[in-house]
């Protein structure tokens, strides 16, 4: 095969269509790019840009209602679109490896991981029987899974997300493919894990001389990892070129916006919370929230009916304060207990020990009377992570935003309607969306509705629990701008829960780094970013993709 | 999605995806109705249901004879039952009743029993399910153990026992079938309510300071009803079959000449060799009605499935 000159993979004028209720929708329109042997090419775009569809078309794994309606895909000179089902199946796995996005759902839960890799080897006729099992262990070891021989006998649920992703990488590379397609290989993982896995993938594919087609939504990550970057927008390739050139001098409008929005590349807070810190008199700190030595212990159910329960300390002696009108960020990886803190501040969970004070008064769960609870609820509002589950699907946008006003009997119906329209305006949503239902809105629009609902009761504190994590970078940047703008106009205070340090830099004044339920480091954002004291904070900072890139004079 | 441009920010000149959005302002229920109209299974099911309901409603107009009438009494011999003729399109039964008329009146009896018993089961199930799903804790525990207890008895056996205790009457059949359905609905509703309670919109509603009752009644319950409604449609099919089974066992009361599909089957089994059509026709009616409700129920399930909802 090496005799074939030219690119390893060549995609020309690719059109992919999906049959839907409303007729055929083109998901990819006239996409063209090439991957040469041993090269890493990243395809970047937001969700719905057609990047994953393009990859699926290459390996013939489009959804049942999708089909290639035009163009050509050549792999090592073979026309994959004419190769037929059997032809593609021969290439897939053996010549083109695939690392799918979600390590949680892409392994068979009832088969030991070693067996799953051995199956790959046997199916592709590489080796069989005991030799395949031995090879599987070697491959797991190679993918960086510690203690591979023992792990090979474990089931997927016994492994962490990072380990499962390594299993998938071992599987993708099992047959020594010439090309590895990695579709968002680390998006579901914590940043520090993401970094080690990508590092490992880099060295591995470099050693093996495997070309990599990396699908990602993160321009910073793409620029850091790839030789060339292909930018897709709404099904079309809008720009491609060497990674650094593309970042330094993006030609297409969309690339410019993408690189401006990428949080990993930003370097400063969006807008200062206040023009100057007005209430910094040291003797009377004006804190809207004081969290004082708070601990939360969950009782886990033991095995069986009479099994003894186990205690899990999710939050361990956490203290911090939120000065009025500022943003404090709690940053940490999944399982660090940061969301539990948020729910205690919202009084949706009661602390096991310690106290949370809001405006100087204790937030104390069930002991307060109804009137006090309503008063508290009106002052503290949440915005949650998942814009798909945080809105009631049966409520129209108008009803969603109006609900808090109606529940607390604020104003007449006419006055409420005016207020809803004001709020829509404040979150920059057009009024004709009022009659729509959440199912018909984009992720960004839904999050704006959630913010409008939170602001309806005129709160002082908004708790944003991963409020921008599920959004595409550009939408994420717009929501962050909106939040910063609202803070400046209405003097809001934010408690911002996130796993993404890059977001912290854009929105927060102070940051607490949480690990294993404890605050390991806290301080003003600039100080923590410039001179982190703890190793863990440094590891988190280093893991921000694109941080190592020298982009010269950029302003955030 | 012309509105998308707005979300992208005011300063950018990128083109928006053209074309109006045909689904603007549609709730989940309206989207489901739209999806139902495109599903051939739903259309067939709905046609069958509508047809049988019309027949049941218009029985006095459609049926040539009264349900209890025995117009062909004189033609019956111990070894001979007259088949289809101009006077009696589907022939006569053992006692000289007109088979077509009895089928038509039987639709009325069977559907009434099916619908009433399902409504009864639905009402009981909603009550217990809301109780368990809304309060949780020991209320949930007690309710669900009770439900488990009932579920552990085979449903037909339970229905037979209940009908035997109450006595032989159509009312007993309705109560027996309804009681058997209660645990199914209760369990389903409690399960979906628990799942909905973990959703972030419920947390958001609680954070708005709404009372627990408001959160349950205006958010959790409406969002949990979809699967229950689907189940009710499917249960209607089972209810029609079970009603026939209980009548077949003689628990529905009435005389051998009563126009009810299950009852007709009971009588027909003695003449299976002489006149198999006496069993085939009511059997087919039961099967087709059940099929209609099942097809429609399955289609409804698909239409309401969150995985197929437009996001």
Automatic annotation (TrEMBL), chain B:
<keyword id="KW-0813">Transport</keyword>
<dbReference type="InterPro" id="IPR000515">
    <property type="entry name" value="MetI-like"/>
</dbReference>
<feature type="region of interest" description="Disordered">
    <location>
        <begin position="1"/>
        <end position="21"/>
    </location>
</feature>
<dbReference type="GO" id="GO:0005886">
    <property type="term" value="C:plasma membrane"/>
</dbReference>
<feature type="compositionally biased region" description="Pro residues">
    <location>
        <begin position="12"/>
        <end position="21"/>
    </location>
</feature>
<feature type="transmembrane region" description="Helical">
    <location>
        <begin position="279"/>
        <end position="300"/>
    </location>
</feature>
<dbReference type="Pfam" id="PF00528">
    <property type="entry name" value="BPD_transp_1"/>
</dbReference>
<feature type="transmembrane region" description="Helical">
    <location>
        <begin position="109"/>
        <end position="134"/>
    </location>
</feature>
<dbReference type="InterPro" id="IPR050366">
    <property type="entry name" value="BP-dependent_transpt_permease"/>
</dbReference>
<keyword id="KW-1003">Cell membrane</keyword>
<feature type="domain" description="ABC transmembrane type-1">
    <location>
        <begin position="107"/>
        <end position="297"/>
    </location>
</feature>
<dbReference type="InterPro" id="IPR035906">
    <property type="entry name" value="MetI-like_sf"/>
</dbReference>
<feature type="transmembrane region" description="Helical">
    <location>
        <begin position="228"/>
        <end position="251"/>
    </location>
</feature>
<dbReference type="GO" id="GO:0055085">
    <property type="term" value="P:transmembrane transport"/>
</dbReference>
<feature type="transmembrane region" description="Helical">
    <location>
        <begin position="146"/>
        <end position="166"/>
    </location>
</feature>
<protein>
    <submittedName>
        <fullName>ABC transporter permease</fullName>
    </submittedName>
</protein>
<dbReference type="InterPro" id="IPR025966">
    <property type="entry name" value="OppC_N"/>
</dbReference>
<keyword id="KW-0472">Membrane</keyword>
<keyword id="KW-1133">Transmembrane helix</keyword>
<feature type="transmembrane region" description="Helical">
    <location>
        <begin position="172"/>
        <end position="189"/>
    </location>
</feature>
<keyword id="KW-0812">Transmembrane</keyword>
<dbReference type="Pfam" id="PF12911">
    <property type="entry name" value="OppC_N"/>
</dbReference>
<feature type="transmembrane region" description="Helical">
    <location>
        <begin position="42"/>
        <end position="63"/>
    </location>
</feature>
<comment type="similarity">
    <text>Belongs to the binding-protein-dependent transport system permease family.</text>
</comment>
């Amino acid at each position: 095969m090496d005799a074939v000159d030219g690119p390893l993979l060549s995609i020309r004028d690719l059109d992919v269509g999906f049959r839907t209720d409303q007729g055929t929708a083109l998901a990819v329109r006239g996409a063209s790019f090439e991957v040469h042997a041993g090269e890493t090419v990243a395809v970047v775009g937001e969700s719905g840009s057609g990047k994953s569809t393009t990859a699926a078309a290459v390996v013939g794994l489009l959804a049942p209602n999708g089909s290639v309606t035009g163009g050509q895909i050549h792999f090592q000179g073979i026309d994959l679109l004419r190769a037929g089902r059997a032809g593609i199946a021969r290439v897939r796995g053996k010549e083109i490896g695939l690392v799918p996005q979600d390590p949680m759902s892409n392994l068979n839960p009832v088969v030991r991981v070693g067996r799953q890799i051995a199956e790959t080897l046997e199916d592709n006729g590489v080796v069989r029987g005991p030799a395949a099992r031995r090879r599987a262990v070697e491959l797991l070891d190679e993918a960086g899974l510690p203690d591979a021989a023992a792990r090979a006998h474990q089931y997927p649920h016994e492994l962490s997300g990072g380990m499962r992703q390594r299993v998938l990488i071992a599987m993708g590379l099992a047959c020594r493919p010439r090309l590895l397609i990695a579709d968002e290989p680390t998006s579901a993982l914590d940043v520090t894990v993401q970094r080690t896995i990508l590092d490992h993938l880099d060295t591995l594919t470099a050693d093996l001389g495997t070309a990599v087609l990396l699908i990602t939504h993160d321009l910073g990550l793409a620029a850091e990892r790839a030789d060339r970057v292909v930018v897709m927008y709404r099904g079309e390739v809008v720009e491609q070129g060497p990674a650094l050139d593309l970042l330094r001098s993006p030609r297409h409008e969309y690339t410019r916006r993408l690189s401006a929005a990428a949080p990993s590349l930003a370097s400063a807070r969006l807008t200062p919370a206040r023009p100057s810190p007005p209430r910094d008199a040291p003797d009377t700190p004006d804190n809207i929230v004081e969290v004082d030595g708070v601990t939360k212990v969950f009782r886990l159910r033991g095995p069986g009916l009479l099994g003894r329960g186990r205690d899990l300390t999710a939050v361990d002696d956490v203290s911090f304060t939120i000065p009025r009108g500022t943003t404090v960020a709690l940053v940490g990886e999944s399982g660090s207990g940061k969301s539990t803190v948020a729910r205690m501040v919202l009084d949706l969970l009661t602390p096991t020990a310690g106290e949370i004070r809001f405006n100087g008064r204790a937030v104390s769960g069930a002991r307060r009377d109804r009137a006090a609870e309503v008063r508290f609820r009106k002052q503290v509002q949440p915005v949650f992570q998942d814009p798909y589950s945080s809105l009631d699907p049966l409520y129209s946008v108008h009803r969603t935003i109006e609900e808090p006003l109606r529940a607390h009997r604020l104003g007449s119906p006419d006055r409420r309607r005016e207020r809803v329209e004001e709020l829509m305006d404040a979150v920059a949503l057009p009024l004709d969306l009022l009659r729509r239902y959440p199912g018909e809105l984009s992720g960004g629009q839904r999050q704006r509705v959630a913010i409008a609902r939170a602001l309806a009761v005129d709160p002082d504190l908004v708790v944003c629990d991963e409020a921008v994590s599920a959004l595409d970078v550009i939408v994420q940047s717009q929501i962050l701008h909106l939040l910063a703008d609202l803070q400046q106009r209405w003097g809001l205070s934010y408690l911002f829960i996130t796993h993404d340090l890059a977001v912290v830099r854009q929105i927060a004044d102070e940051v607490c780094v949480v690990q294993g339920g404890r605050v390991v480091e806290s301080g003003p954002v600039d100080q923590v970013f410039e001179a982190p004291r703890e190793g863990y904070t440094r590891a988190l900072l280093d893991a921000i993709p694109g941080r190592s890139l020298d982009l010269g004079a950029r302003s955030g | 999605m012309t509105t998308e441009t707005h979300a992208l920010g005011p300063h950018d000149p990128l083109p928006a995806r053209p074309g109006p959005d045909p689904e603007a302002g549609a709730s989940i229920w309206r989207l489901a109705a739209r999806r139902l109209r495109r599903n051939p299974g739903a259309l067939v099911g709905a046609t069958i249901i509508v047809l049988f309901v019309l027949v049941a409603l218009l029985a006095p107009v459609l049926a040539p004879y009264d349900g209890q009438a025995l117009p062909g009494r004189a033609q019956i011999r111990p070894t001979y039952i007259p088949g289809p003729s101009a006077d009696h399109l589907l022939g006569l039964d053992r006692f000289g009743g007109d088979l077509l008329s009895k089928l038509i009146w039987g639709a009325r009896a069977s559907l009434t029993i099916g619908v009433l018993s399902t409504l009864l089961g639905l009402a009981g199930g909603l009550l217990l399910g809301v109780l368990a799903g809304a309060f949780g804790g020991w209320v949930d525990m007690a309710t669900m153990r009770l439900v488990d207890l009932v579920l552990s008895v085979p449903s037909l056996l339970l229905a037979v026992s209940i009908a035997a205790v109450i006595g032989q009457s159509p009312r007993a059949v309705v109560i027996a079938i309804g009681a058997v359905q209660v645990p199914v609905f209760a369990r389903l509703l409690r399960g979906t309510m628990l799942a909905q309670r973990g959703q972030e919109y419920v947390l958001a509603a609680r954070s708005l300071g709404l009372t627990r009752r408001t959160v349950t009644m205006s958010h959790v319950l409406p969002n949990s009803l979809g699967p229950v409604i689907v189940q009710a449609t499917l249960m209607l099919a089972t209810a029609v079959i079970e009603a026939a089974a209980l009548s077949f066992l003689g628990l529905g009361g009435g005389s051998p000449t009563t126009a009810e599909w299950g009852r007709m089957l009971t009588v027909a089994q003695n003449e299976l060799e002489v006149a198999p059509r006496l069993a085939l026709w009511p059997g087919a009616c039961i099967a087709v009605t059940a099929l209609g409700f099942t097809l429609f129920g399955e289609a409804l399930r698909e239409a309401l499935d969150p995985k197929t909802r437009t996001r």
